[in-house]
Write a structure and sequence with these properties.
The chain has 1 helix and 4 strands. By secondary structure, the protein is of the alpha+beta class.
Amino acid sequence: MEAVDEITLTTTEKIPENDYRIIGLVFGTATGEEKASAHEQAIKVLRDKAKRVGADVVVAMRFESTSSIVTAYGTAVKIVK
């Protein structure tokens, strides 16, 4: 398992029973004929960017897509221990 896979992604806007600090918006984009692999690639880029800014979790994750581009985006947050 790659370290970048440790970034939790959630479509919810809050993390129950955890305090956290908002870092900011992160996104990943990908292109491709096959939408499933483009979604996977966009998630991989999103996780990589979240890891680089020090996030533990991406909340409110969403997808936007056109006929040629898939974008995954959300809010990067750091869990406060």
